[in-house]
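Regression report. Comparing outputs from two consecutive submissions.

Submission 1:
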Amino acid sequence: MRIAVNARLLLKDKLEGIGWFAHQILSRMVRNHPEHQFIFFFDRPWDDEFIFGDNVEPVLLKPQARHPFLYYIWTENALPRALKKYKADVYFSPDMLGCLHTKVPVVFTIHDLAYKHYPQYMDRLHRWHYGRFMPRFAKKATKIIAVSEFTKQDIIKRLHVPAEKIEVIYNGVHKAYQPLPYSETEAIRNKYTDGQEFFLFTGALHPRKNIINLLKAFVYFKRRQRSPIKLVIVGRMAWQFEEIEKARRLMPFKDDVVWTGYMGVEELAKLTASAYALVYPSLFEGFGIPILEAMTCGVPVIVSDSSSMPEVAGNAGLLVNPNQPEDIAGKMMAIYKDETLRNHLINNALAQKNKFNWDKSAEKLWQILAEVAKK
């Protein structure tokens, strides 16, 4: 079988949510099925670390698809020609780009429909692109992969796709995420927070991540608790971040907030395992990988009561209204003052994490691709 793959988000030192999904799924499928051929389509020169086996043939397709107009040229001109040239039996896209002009069966992934829920947080061209093409990609696809049951139901409702066309394949967690001994967590605290305990947020920073309300909640917490605990925020400034920068400059207790920028997975895993709790009050998520990463490290989580986040956290998290900073702060105070509650959440987290496994997800996807190609 010849499996063609959209590999454009496999970017060295720039892997984020969807990129990690692609990396973890594809690396396992390549290793587990050496008798089959994979053609990885990149839109820029690739790094050899993403050529996961001798059965991977990397191909550069131009132009670089980093803009809605270029998405169209890449998916509807370069890609169909390449699928025909390389005689693909099935095409898999781990990101949100399908392909309309091909006879090859298409399996593509929808991570979320945030563009429908929060269009104000997306620039006009991307909003136009997803609004115009996502329903068409969904209709054309032979199978759609959703990363949570919430996302599956959202696709059914908002794109009018029949349920039997959609399969749920959860994210997993990188092997670097695991509990650490006290000596190592102490060293991390000494490195980043002068030895103090800290709440943690991780993710690309843009309005949907709700950083402003997180900062307000932290100020409310500090005024009530008078605690030396700090807040560490990990992630690159993504888009529409001007308001975040302003709040960062003007907020009280700003010296107790540590901004690290983007961080590689090995260091981020250690930082996550050293946190007192993850606070993740995002407005909307198709899955929410940082929640799973924290639970795998034995770190309790405070998450929004919306979209997929209750599904991922299960009974291992405290749920908050993301639009109410006082509620976020209240849960931070609850977990800070009640060690019994915190330990209860940690125990639940170590059980909840077992529901999510990259090996199981990769094998489920393989079965889908094989079935689609056979038909």
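Submission 2:
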Amino acid sequence: MANAVSPPQARSVAGAISLRGVGKVYDPDGLATVAVDDWTLEIANGEFVVVVGPSGCGKTTLLNGIAGFDPITRGEIVLDGETIASPSRSKRPGSDRIVVFQNGSLFPWKTVVDNVAYGPVVQRRMSRGQALQEARTLLERVGLGDVADAYPRKLSSGVQRRVEMMRALINDPKVLLLDEPFRALDAIARSVMHDELLKLYDATKKTVFFITHDLDEAIFLADRVVVSTSRPARVKRVLPIDLPRPRTHLIIASPEFLALKRQIADAVHEEAEKAFRLGEPELA
């Protein structure tokens, strides 16, 4: 990873997201479980926003609504002025919003380069030869050229995560949606991946919507941290992270970082206690 070179340069410059009174009710004709309620937030082009909150509060439900994987039952989600989700619209995923999931999603029967080339072939209708060439170029630029012909099972978890990032970025999405992508990594690998992600972010300035339980991770990565309430998810608090970029792991020990962590920890702990007292089940 130390050999990583220039990340891919962004071609798109858009990616403003507007969440306007978003709500999601599961089984509206039965148990009517409210997962998200009146979630309102404006995310600027190229902003890195991280959402934290108790387990089961509805963070992933919200991300799935933005991705178009799950319909919403109230409000609307707007991307660059276009409504992409509302109660009157059927769910609609799009290549302008790419998700990197908690669990690895690489095809184990495909090599690294074939995994990265898959999106351009399927979503951009590129010829396989052209897609493979573009994928190899991208992998070389980010220091992964030496594993291009390897299969995922031969790679460490951290390298697999990097490959998944490249598979997302090769399609030049407006928005990256990351659902606790480093949760399964050990602390050292996770720290390295934070550095790698910030290199990509600083180079591409994609809009990033990232959800996590890890407060250090949230503060280290974000422009703003949004604290969610316990279920149903609402915006409890929004904290700007006024730490200079580019960032290194040394900033985690700074007084400014620790002061932010205390504020966020207090807000999250309050909501976690509410969820615990109510015996909330862990939903998405």
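Expected: both submissions complete independently.
Actual: both completed, but the second showed a warning that disappeared on reload.
Relevant detail on submission 2: The longest strand covers residues 33-43.
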